[in-house]
Each structure stands twice: as structure tokens, then as C-alpha cells.
Write a structure and sequence with these properties.
Elements: E1 4-5, H1 16-22, H2 38-58, E2 65-68, H3 71-85, E3 92-96, H4 101-112, E4 116-120, H5 130-136, E5 141-145, H6 159-168, E6 172-176, E7 195-199, E8 210-214, H7 240-278, E9 283-284, E10 295-299, H8 305-314, E11 317-318, E12 324-326, E13 329-331, H9 334-338, H10 343-347, E14 349-353, H11 360-379, H12 382-391
Parallel strand pairs: 1-11, 3-4, 3-5, 5-6, 6-7
Antiparallel strand pairs: 2-8, 7-8, 9-10, 10-14, 12-13
Helix pairs in contact: 1-7, 2-7, 3-4, 7-11, 8-11
The structure holds pyridoxal-5'-phosphate (PLP).
Length: about 400
């Protein structure tokens, strides 16, 4: 069976050029980047080249890039690091209600330490209201952390305006850019960012590698304690192969970002329009907002998202819901409920996320498989049939 992968926001395949760049660092060039002999120096030089490649993608300076184990660690490091370095007697953090758990649960951990957190609501289009942000700022606000692109909807927050508000109020500004880096241009200077998190496996590098941009001079407390690796910013023997892979992936993204984005958005629009026209009552979530070129999130009333995912998987098509499975029950996505969807519609929503290797040969069959699977599941839904009959 020819499988169709429309779940690139979950993870991406390692690009063949990335794998090629990494392979020597598992064998001939296996040295520890802290060793002073030739093996070590080869590894060190590769790590520093990767730091330059990642910095170049973000318009940062190489010394502002710290390699981490991924997006989750970068988010934790940024948030705890800023809050723990602040010396005020009371501290307050502002975030949004649609963040990834890597930010939300970190903020909840702060609350357990008696640090106040404001979770900004979002509008139907998934974007925060800038007036809400301005109103939330307090004299003791030490950090604003608002994601760049949302993992479920693809919506892009207006970071340049948030950056301006943060800079005017002299508050540190962090963004979780895990879903934007590699998909849209990200410039830490023009966005006035102090910290930015990214993750390798969302941009064709391996899982378990990521980076945190920390603007030179920012006061950020160490997150992990250990040796003096990465100038003490992140102790632990460097994952040289992973770092080399992330560097290569950043270089590839810099070269192909614009053409990939153009090509992928045409395919995404074809998929979205095709599904909306073929499937009665379907609606795209947050489609009016600026979105990453690869993401489409669609409600198919009358179906359970999990059931559709399984039905599609049996037909060889991979996509996802934003639902989280907790204690055996499927909770509707916090992102979709935050944009105002009732639980039934949140549960009926599916995310399709395209990538560098998606072609029309994936989209054409998807436009046959998905409508057929939705129709089949709706046949099994007595409430949908009754509602549809009442409407007609
Ligand atoms: N932030 C966002 C927006 C994400 O989508 C993800 C992963 O899905 C993460 C953070 C976590 O990144 P990682 O898997 O590298 O820990």
C-alpha cells in the first residue's frame, strides 16, 4: 500500500541530506566535542558550524544558540530560566491559552510555585487580542511567552506587534517557534525576541535535538546543572550527530523555505478546498487567520475524530486530531475549545499537515479517501443522519 503522510506537524522524516551529514559522526568522527585531541576537535568544529547554520536561519548570532534535546526542553529552559533569574519579590508571566503543553504545563508548574500566570484568550481565528495583552501587563510581569505558529491550526500570531509591546514595557519575550521555523521566515531581530524555541524533528532533522535562542545579555538562569558544555548554558555532552543534523536541516530550510512554502500552500489549498466542496457541512477552522502554508484543520460534523483517524489509517492515510488521551477518556483539544468550538465539534476536527515531500500524487487520492471515510462514518451516526434529514 502506498501510504500518504499528512501529519508533518507531528514529525517529519529526516531529510536524506541531513542523514548523510550526520552519518560520519556515528562512526569515523565519533569524538566528544569537549576533547582536545583531533577526534574531539573534529566534533567541536562540526558543532560550531551547526551553530552558525541555525543562527543564520534565525538572523541570530552563533553564540546566541544553545543546543537542547528538543522543543520541550527549550520551552522549559526559557520559561524557568527567565523567571528564576528575575529578582523581584512577586513575578508574573503572560502566555496564551493555545500554547503547546510544553509551555502550558511549564506555566502551571510556575503557578504551583506561587508565580502568577495570565492565560490570554484567543478569538475564533486563534489569535490573541493585542489589547488583552496590553491590559494583562503588570508591574511585576517578567515574561511574555506566546507561540509563533499553532501546532493544530497553523495560525500565526503577530509576533512583531507582541515584540513591540514587550520591548516598550521592558519585559522579556519568548516564543515557541517549533511549528514556524522552517515553514515561514523567522527573524529574531525584527520580531524583537529575547528567546525562541525550536525543534529538529519538525524540520527534517532527527527527534531529540532542538535549540534555544537566547539574546546576548539576557538574564536567563541555567536550567540543567553539570559540566561546562556550551559555555555552561546547557551542560551535557553534546549530541554531535543530532546537532550536525539540525545545522544541515537549518541550512536546507534557509535555501528552500520560500519555494517549499509556495508549493506546499498550493497543495494545502487544493486539499482544503477539495474536502470542503466534497464533504457536506464541513468547515475549516481558523482559515481566515494568517496560517503556516502546510496546515489545514477541518471539522467534519457527525464524526468522531479518533474513529476517522483509524478509518483513514486503514486506507493508508496518516493525519491527526488535537485530542489528548487522558485517563482513558479522549479530551477535546484545548486549542479548539479555546477558539470557541463546542466539545462535539472539537472532537470532529482533523488536522492535515503537509510537508516537503508531499506531492499532488498524495493530494489526489486523499480527496477520494477522506470524503468516502467521512460518508461511511456518518452512515453509522444516527444523530448526524437525523440532523441532516431535518435540515433537508
Ligand atoms: N511546541 C510545539 C508548538 C510543538 O508542536 C511541539 C511538538 O509537537 C513542542 C513544542 C515539543 O517539541 P519536542 O517534541 O521537540 O519536545
Amino acid at each position: 500500500m502506498n501510504r500518504i503522510y499528512l501529519d508533518h506537524n507531528a514529525t517529519t522524516a529526516v531529510d536524506p541530506a541531513v542523514l548523510d551529514a550526520m552519518l560520519p559522526f556515528f562512526s569515523a568522527d565519533f569524538g566528544n566535542a569537549s576533547s582536545i585531541h583531533t577526534f574531539g576537535q573534529r566534533a567541536r568544529s562540526a558543532v560550531e558550524t551547526a551553530r552558525e547554520q541555525v543562527a543564520a536561519l534565525l538572523n541570530a548570532r552563533p553564540q546566541e544558540i544553545v543546543f537542547t534535546s528538543g522543543g520541550t526542553e527549550s520551552d522549559n529552559h526559557a520559561i524557568f530560566g527567565v523567571v528564576n533569574a528575575a529578582t523581584a519579590s512577586t513575578k508574573h508571566v503572560i502566555t496564551s491559552s493555545v500554547e503547546h503543553e510544553a509551555v502550558l504545563n511549564t506555566c502551571q508548574a510556575l503557578e504551583k510555585q506561587c508565580i502568577a500566570v495570565t492565560y490570554l484568550p484567543v478569538k475564533r481565528d486563534g489569535l490573541i487580542e493585542l489589547a488583552d495583552l496590553r491590559n494583562a501587563i503588570r508591574p511585576d510581569t517578567v515574561l511574555i511567552t506566546v507561540m509563533h505558529a499553532n501546532n493544530e491550526l497553523g495560525t500565526i500570531q503577530s509576533l512583531s506587534e507582541i515584540g513591540r509591546i514587550a520591548a516598550d514595557a521592558d519585559i522579556y519575550f519568548h516564543t515557541d517557534a517549533v511549528q514556524s521555523v522552517g515553514k515561514i521566515p523567522v527573524d529574531v531581530k525584527s520580531l524583537q525576541l529575547d528567546l525562541l524555541s525550536l525543534s529538529g524533528h519538525k524540520l527534517y532533522a532527527p527527534k531529540g535535538i532542538g535549540a534555544l535562542f537566547i539574546k546576548g545579555g539576557a538574564r536567563v538562569r541555567q536550567f540543567l546543572y553539570g559540566g561546562h558544555h556550551q559555555r555552561g548554558f546547557r551542560p551535557g555532552t553534546e549530541n554531535v550527530a543530532g546537532i550536525v543534523g539540525l545545522g544541515k536541516a537549518a541550512e536546507l530550510a534557509r535555501i528552500s523555505l520560500e519555494s517549499d512554502a509556495q508549493r506546499i500552500s498550493i497543495l494545502r489549498d487544493k486539499l482544503e478546498r477539495g474536502l470542503l466542496s466534497r464533504i457536506p457541512d464541513s468547515r475549516a477552522n481558523a482559515a481566515g487567520a494568517p496560517r503556516t502554508p502546510n496546515t489545514s484543520n477541518i471539522i467534519f460534523p457527525g464524526i468522531e475524530g479518533e474513529a476517522l483517524i483509524i478509518a483513514l489509517d486503514l486506507k493508508g492515510l496518516a493525519c491527526s486530531t488535537g485530542a489528548a488521551c487522558s485517563s482513558g477518556a479522549v479530551e477535546p483539544s484545548h486549542v479548539l475549545t479555546a477558539i470557541g468550538l463546542p466539545a462535539s465539534e472539537a472532537r470532529a476536527s482533523i488536522r492535515f499537515s503537509l510537508g516537503r515531500h508531499t506531492t499532488a500524487a498524495d493530494i489526489d487520492p486523499a480527496l477520494e479517501i477522506i470524503p468516502a471515510a467521512v460518508a461511511q462514518l456518518r452512515q453509522l451516526s444516527p444523530t448526524y443522519k437525523k440532523e441532516a434529514a431535518a435540515r433537508s
